[in-house]
Amino acid sequence: MKQLSKEPIGASGELALDWMNGRRTPDANQNLKGVISGINLGSTSPKVFRALVEASCFGAKKIADRFISEGIPVKGVIALGGIAKKSSFVMQVMADVLNSPIKVAQSEQACALGASVFGAVAAGVYQDTESAMNAMASPFEKVYEPIKENVEAYKEVYKNYSELCVAMENHIMQ
What we know:
two-stranded antiparallel ribbon; 53% helix; transferase; ATPase_NBD; kinase activity; kinase; FGGY_C
């Protein structure tokens, strides 16, 4: 991870599309494939891995941007389990790309906890979801704040990612 975090944003031109299993929502298309572009003899494993991390974060940004463009505000981002607990590097990139704080839930069973909140409301233990959440919700163990200079740097790389998305979709879907 040390080598990875030393690589500059956008590495050295390596750029990836996170379509390894097809493109996710909002424009899901399982026929699309992942791409790693801009590699050369100087492309190291950390540079390529950084491009893959950035692509995953850009894919999440595409989803958030679609919500916003459809009039659905994104009021906050909460992460749980897996990568959120294991990689501060990935979470910081995500906060920078989304230009939003990301709160990491402390609970190891956040999905089950969410289900129990709704169950408690359905059973009448709490009058409404907000009351149940206030009483039962997991605290946050960490908050990743976007770093202003990184946010600005990612805007250009995201533009390149978006252009590569269009080019590859046109190429693959011909």
